[in-house]
């Protein structure tokens, strides 16, 4: 679900953005920031892109069925009203 390469890239960007006087701590900072990012991202209530796409497809199909059922109800109501 969480791409480790992306986290590594983010940690590297953070360490590269440190001022030159702190570059000696860059390796340790990069490793710790990677751990912190991973831990915080794992706490988020996220789904994978694949799961999201599947649910989006299910929602679309459900919406289509609902619209078809609504059209049927409308038609039945017209017939019922016409019979009165």
UniProtKB/TrEMBL annotation:
One Gene Ontology term from the biological process aspect of the record: ubiquinone biosynthetic process
Subcellular location: Cytoplasm
Pathway: Cofactor biosynthesis; ubiquinone biosynthesis
Major location category of this protein: cytoplasm
Any GO CC annotation of this UniProt entry: cytosol
Key words of the record: Cytoplasm, Ubiquinone biosynthesis
InterPro entries listed in its UniProt record: UbiK
PANTHER family: UBIQUINONE BIOSYNTHESIS ACCESSORY FACTOR UBIK (PTHR38040:SF1)
Function: Required for efficient ubiquinone (coenzyme Q) biosynthesis. UbiK is probably an accessory factor of Ubi enzymes and facilitates ubiquinone biosynthesis by acting as an assembly factor, a targeting factor, or both.
Stored NCBIfam families: UbiqAccUbiK
Family indicated by similarity: Belongs to the UbiK family.
Name of the protein in question: Ubiquinone biosynthesis accessory factor UbiK
Organism the protein comes from: Shewanella septentrionalis
Taxonomic lineage from the root: Bacteria, Pseudomonadati, Pseudomonadota, Gammaproteobacteria, Alteromonadales
Gene expressing this chain: ubiK
């Amino acid at each position: 679900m969480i791409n480790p390469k992306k986290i590594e890239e983010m940690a590297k960007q953070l360490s590269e953005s440190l001022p030159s006087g702190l570059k000696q701590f860059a390796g340790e900072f990069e490793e710790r920031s990677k751990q912190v990012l991973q831990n915080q991202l794992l706490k988020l209530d996220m789904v994978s892109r694949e799961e999201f796409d599947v649910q989006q497809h299910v929602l679309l199909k459900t919406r289509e069925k609902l619209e078809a059922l609504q059209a049927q109800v409308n038609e039945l109501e017209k017939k019922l009203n016409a019979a009165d």
